[in-house]
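Shape matters. Shown next:

___
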Amino acid sequence: MPVRPFSRNQTWLFPPTLEELIPAEHPARFVAAFVDGLTRPEWADLQIPLDGDPRGAPAYHARALLGVWLYGFMTGVRSSRKLEQACQDCLPFLWLTGWQHPDHNTLWRFYAANRQQMRKLLKRTVRVALELGLVDLAVQAVDGTKIAANAAKDQTASAARVEELLARTDKAIADLEAQNATGGDTRPVDLPEQLRSAKALKERIEQAKRHLEEEGKRVVNLTDPDAQFVKSRQGIIPGYNAQAVVSPVSNGEQQGLLVTAAEVVTAPIDVDQLAPMVQAARETVGPVEATLADAGFHSGEALEACAALNQQVVMPEATSKAVLEDPYHKDQFTYNPQSDTYTCPEHKVLRFRGISSSKSTGTVRRYRAAGSDCRACPAFGICAKDRKGRTLKIKATDQALRAHRVWMRTQEAQELYARRKELVEPEFGILKEQLGARRFLLRGYKNVRAEWSLLAVGSNLRTLWKLTRGQATQVRARGSWSFCRA
């Protein structure tokens, strides 16, 4: 077999154009079309100025910088230094910037100034999918995943440890200031490096102290005080609970997954997140027939909140099947509203005994059978173990729980729930394995929320590109999405 000619000294008869650098259906072109499709009112809503200041050196165009960051999130490159390198030697990034080379400081300043407003781009990716008729509005799935914070576990300190560190830092600052005293001379404009570092450390420790006092924490991470201890596959780590709602999308031939809502919470469990995530997704895509969730979201309060939103929920409960099928479970007791009593499976009456409240159960209505009835019952010791008689504690949400248990036994509910794993769990796999979302790069709750939203934007752009490539590149024209060949 002959060998192709090889030389690194080849010359071009005519220099190549930017358009020749990447294929017509390259994902960078989709990102460019998405950014170029932003209207001036949309740029104003993002609070990103398009027109530069006539004074000073020329600035990089916002379209170029936003395109770099979105393509970076789309391909798993989230570091400003890595993006700087990519803008030097990666053709897609060079094409997006028009062969310009913004450095990491420029890229970081744009990101730091605009990332909070860039969260709005998630809704825009969903609107694109809706306008193209790609979204299946029959079902959506919600779930949470734990993501490590940009913080070391060994930087966690108790309240006493924080006070000790604060005292030591104050002493170190006092010593440094004494060493740098200039007598009657004026204070130097720039603080010495050691003193600047000590004062920055003091700010971090004081911030950690405020978190301990305001949130009632026992321990706090000095690197990222907003991070909580969460349980992950790597054990207990400082991290965040990242939530997402995912809907299936299809162009008739290919299927994909679209994140319709993304949020980060500091709560280590999901139990209070169902209704807020359903509401967030509804603001983007409108009502969806059924929402799928796992048992971690289950509670009577969540069911009532979703019922108020007129949202059908398919969700098993954390209580084991064996407990629910117990013949003396409280669901087996029949309520009589006229007499405000319950009748047990052995036909004994439980009468209202009052209202009580506790942190674990909340406010409950207590019903109790007569002790003599229970002690004479053949189920004594199985149903009632207290000689005073069986007590039922009825919450305001128990009616919603019973209705949901009946619904979950239907074949329709079982078939719907079987779809949950094929929606949200693969999306988390894409975010973590392909987009590098196993660990946040930013610190602080506000910044982490923005980073998670932009990860979702990057994933959605990948999905939209895959479902539209081979057809056309999308551009925004006269207020609606139309097709034109790249």
DSSP finds 17 helices and 15 strands in the chain. The radius of gyration is 30 Å. Residues 159 and 290 are 45 Å apart (CA to CA). The first helix runs from residue 27 to 36.
